[in-house]
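Recap slide: Rhodanese-like domain-containing protein, sequence and predicted structure.
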Amino acid sequence: MSVEDVTPRAAYEALRTDPDAVLVDVRTDAEWNFVGLADLGEAGKQPVLIPWQVYPTMQVNGAFTDYLRKAGATPDSKLYFLCRSGVRSVAAGQAAQAAGFQNSFNILNGFEGPPDAEGHRGNVAGWKAEGLPWRQR
């Protein structure tokens, strides 16, 4: 299965304009707490927070798709998966597709993107670097 990549800006526009669009942030509790979250207030939405891997062991969350259903996702939902750099979100999108959520998308470069020349994230690409709304938890 192939999860379609979308830019952070395209994902944000879909989240703002499409009532069936849902942002699923698959990072860990530590990342949500210390790095920040996408702010969807303008869209009247909140991100759905479901870790793909459970900190600190980073074992894959075996109940991931069950949590998607509990969060209200349906086969008609358009799910936009977000992680730190766009890797875990692909795996989460593939699992979602396998569970019947065909409208699954990967947000390219994730929330923070790749590191810059000094090793810092959030400056080169991704949600934060695009200047999209975000907040500390």
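Residues 18 and 130 are 20 Å apart (CA to CA).
The first strand starts at residue 4 and ends at 6.
(End of recap.)
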